[in-house]
C-alpha cells in the first residue's frame, strides 16, 4: 500500500503518529493509498522550522521572490499532464476539469509575479516641516492554509501563492482525501528555487488543524471548506489572536427571466449544476425560473440534456461529462437528501437513483437528478447537497425570485439569465451575494479580482486572491520621519496637528 507523508524542510517525510486516512480511487471504490495524519508535535516542529526559514525569505527582495513564482508557473505548465492525472485519480474529476483546477491556481501564481508592485507602500512627502510619512507592507510571518478536497490544486495555490510572494512562510494542511497534488506543488516550488522550510505541507485531520489554531507562531489562517468547520476555525483562530479568513459552503441560485434565451439557460444550468458532479462551491444548485411558462419551457429543455449526460471514470477520456463523487459517505449523503426531497413532496423529474456503471459497481458514481416544485422548507433546498442534483423553485415574479437568493443563508454566487439590462443591473445592485453572473452561470472572478461570498459562505474580512490577498498576508507599518532641519527647540507636550 502506497504511504503518503508530509513535506517538511524540503523533503518527503513519513508520519510518526501511526494514524492514517484512506485515499480512495473514487471510480472503483478501492483504497489506493494511506495518508499520514500529523500529530500536534509534528505540526509544531514544522512550524518552528518554517519560522526560522521565513527570516531570510522575508528579507529577500520582492523581485527575487517573484522570480521564484515565475519559474513555478513555467514548471506547472511543464507538468500539467502529470498533475492532472494525479488530481483526477484521487478526486475523480475529468482530465479537462482537473486542468481547469490547476489553471485557475496557476493564474493566481501569475498574479503573484506582480508582488513588487503590490507590496509598494504609501508615501507622503513633507507631511509637516521636514517630516515625511510612509508605510510598508511587511509579511505577517508564518501563515497557514487549510483547504478542501474539491479543488486540490487551485485552492492550495490561492493560499500559498500570495502568502509566499509577500515573504511569509506557509504551512499547508490540504484535504486528506486527495493529498498528492499539494505535495507535488511543494516539490515544484523547491525546483523553482523556494528555500527549504518556507513551505511545509502537513497532512492531517482535526488534530493538525487544532494545532494550527492554537500555534503561538502562526499569525494568519486562510480556510476553505464547509460552513460548520469554517465557523469553528474562525472562532477558535480569532480567539487566539490570529487574523483568519474562512470561506464556507454555498447554495447558488440562478434566476431565469421569461425573456432569457432558454437554450442558453438550459446549457448553462447543465454545465454549472452537474460539472464536477456538482462538487463545486460555485455550482448552481437551484434554478429559479420566473413564471410557470418559463419553468415549463426550461424543464422541457433540461430533461433531454440531463438524460444525455455521460457519467464515468476519468480514464474514459472524452466519453465522460462528470466522474464519481469523492467518497462513499458523500454518495450516501447525496442519495439520502434525494430521498428526503421525494418524501417532502418535490417532483423528481430526472431520477438518477438507480444509476449503475458496469465494471464500476463499487465506485462512488451518482446519476444526475433534477427536481421541480421544490419549496423553501425542504431539506434539498435548505442544505448544500454537493452532488449532481439540481432543484427548481418556481417564482411568480422577479421580486419573488430575488427574495429566494436573498433569504437563503448562503451567499457565495448567484446568476441571472435575461436580455433585459435594467433587470440585470437591479439584480447585481440589490442581491446580498458576493459573486454575481449576468448570463454567466459560474461567475468565478479572475485572479486579479477577488473571490469571496457573503452571509454563511464567508467569515472574516478580505477576499481570496487579487489585491485583498496581499493585504491579508501583510501587516502595515507606518513611519513618520523628521530630520534635524525640521526640529524646533523645546519639548511639546501637546498632541497637536502638523504645522
Ligand atoms: P470540509 O469542511 O470537510 O474540510 C475542509 C478542511 O477542513 C479539510 O482540510 C479538512 O481536513 C478540515 N476539517 C474537516 N473536519 C474538520 C474538523 N472537525 N476540525 C478541523 N478541521 C476539519 O470540506 P470539504 O468536504 O473538504 O470541502 C467541501 C466544502 O467546501 C463544501 O461545503 C464547499 O462548498 C466548500 N468550498 C467552499 C469554497 C469557497 O470558496 N467558499 C471553495 C471550495 C469548497
Tally of domains:
2
Number of distinct beta strands:
23
Bound molecules: nicotinamide-adenine-dinucleotide
Strand order of the largest sheet: 15-16-17-14-13-19-20
Counted by DSSP, the helix tally is: 16
Tell me the overall shape.
Answer: globular
CATH topology of the largest domain: Aldehyde Dehydrogenase, Chain A, domain 1
Instruction: State the helical fraction.
Output: 25-40%
- β-strand percent reads 15-25%
**For this structure, what is the CATH class of the largest domain?**
Alpha Beta
- Secondary structure class reads alpha/beta
Average pLDDT works out at 97
Low-confidence stretches: none
Distance between the termini: 74 Å
CATH architecture of the largest domain: 3-Layer(aba) Sandwich
Radius of gyration: 25 Å
Can you tell me the CATH superfamily of the largest domain? Aldehyde Dehydrogenase, Chain A, domain 1
Major pleated sheet = 7 strands, mixed
EC number: 1.2.1.27
InterPro entries: Ald_DH/histidinol_DH (IPR016161), Ald_DH_C (IPR016163), Ald_DH_CS_CYS (IPR016160), Ald_DH_N (IPR016162), Aldehyde_DH_dom (IPR015590), MeMal-semiAld_DH (IPR010061)
Keywords: NAD, Oxidoreductase
Protein name: methylmalonate-semialdehyde dehydrogenase (CoA acylating)
Amino acid at each position: 500500500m502506497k504511504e503518503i507523508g508530509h513535506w517538511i524542510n524540503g523533503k518527503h517525510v513519513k508520519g510518526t503518529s501511526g494514524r492514517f486516512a484512506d485515499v480512495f480511487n473514487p471510480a472503483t471504490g478501492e483504497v489506493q493509498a494511506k495518508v499520514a495524519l500529523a500529530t500536534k508535535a509534528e505540526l509544531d516542529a514544522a512550524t518552528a522550522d518554517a519560522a526560522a526559514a521565513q527570516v531570510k525569505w522575508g528579507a529577500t527582495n520582492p523581485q527575487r521572490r517573484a522570480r521564484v513564482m515565475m519559474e513555478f508557473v513555467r514548471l506547472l505548465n511543464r507538468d500539467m499532464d502529470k498533475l492532472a492525472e494525479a488530481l483526477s485519480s484521487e478526486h475523480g474529476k475529468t482530465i479537462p476539469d482537473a486542468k481547469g483546477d490547476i489553471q485557475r491556481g496557476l493564474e493566481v501564481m501569475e498574479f503573484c509575479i506582480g508582488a513588487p508592485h503590490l507590496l509598494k507602500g504609501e508615501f507622503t512627502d513633507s507631511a509637516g516641516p521636514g517630516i515625511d510619512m510612509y508605510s510598508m507592507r511587511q509579511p505577517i510571518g508564518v501563515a497557514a492554509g487549510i483547504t478542501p478536497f474539491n479543488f486540490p490544486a487551485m485552492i492550495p495555490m490561492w493560499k500559498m501563492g500570495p502568502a509566499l510572494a509577500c515573504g511569509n512562510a506557509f504551512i499547508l494542511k490540504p484535504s486528506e482525501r486527495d493529498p498528492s497534488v499539494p505535495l507535488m506543488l511543494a516539490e515544484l516550488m523547491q525546483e523553482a528555487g523556494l528555500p527549504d522550510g518556507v513551505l511545509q505541507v502537513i497532512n492531517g485531520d482535526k488534530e493538525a488543524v487544532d494545532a494550527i489554531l492554537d500555534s503561538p507562531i502562526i499569525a494568519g489562517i486562510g480556510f476553505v471548506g464547509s460552513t460548520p468547520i469554517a465557523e469553528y476555525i474562525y472562532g477558535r483562530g480569532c480567539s487566539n489572536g490570529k487574523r483568519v479568513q474562512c470561506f464556507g459552503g454555498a447554495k447558488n441560485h440562478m434566476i431565469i427571466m421569461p425573456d432569457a434565451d432558454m437554450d442558453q439557460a438550459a446549457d448553462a444550468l447543465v454545465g454549472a449544476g452537474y460539472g464536477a458532479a456538482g462538487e463545486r462551491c460555485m455550482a448552481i444548485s437551484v434554478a429559479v425560473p420566473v413564471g410557470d411558462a418559463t419553468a415549463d419551457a426550461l424543464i422541457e429543455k433540461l430533461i433531454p440534456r440531463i438524460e444525455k449526460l455521460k457519467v464515468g471514470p476519468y480514464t474514459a477520456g472524452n466519453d465522460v461529462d462528470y466522474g464519481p463523487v469523492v467518497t462513499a459517505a458523500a454518495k450516501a449523503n447525496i442519495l439520502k437528501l434525494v430521498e428526503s426531497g421525494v418524501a417532502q413532496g418535490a417532483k423528481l423529474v430526472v431520477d438518477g437513483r438507480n444509476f449503475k456503471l458496469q465494471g464500476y459497481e463499487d465506485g462512488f458514481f451518482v446519476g444526475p437528478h433534477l427536481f421541480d416544485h421544490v419549496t423553501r422548507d425542504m431539506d434539498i433546498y435548505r442544505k448544500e447537497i454537493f452532488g449532481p442534483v439540481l432543484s427548481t423553485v418556481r417564482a411568480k415574479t422577479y421580486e419573488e425570485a430575488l427574495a429566494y437568493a436573498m433569504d437563503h443563508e448562503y451567499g457565495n454566487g448567484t446568476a441571472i439569465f435575461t436580455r433585459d439590462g435594467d433587470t440585470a443591473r437591479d439584480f447585481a445592485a440589490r442581491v446580498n451575494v458576493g459573486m454575481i453572473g449576468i448570463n454567466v452561470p459560474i461567475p468565478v472572478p479572475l485572479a486579479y479580482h477577488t473571490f469571496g461570498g457573503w452571509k454563511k459562505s464567508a467569515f472574516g474580512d478580505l477576499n481570496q486572491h487579487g489585491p485583498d490577498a496581499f493585504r491579508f498576508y501583510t501587516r502595515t507599518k507606518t513611519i513618520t520621519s523628521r530630520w534635524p532641519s525640521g526640529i524646533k527647540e523645546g519639548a511639546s507636550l501637546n498632541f497637536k496637528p502638523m504645522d
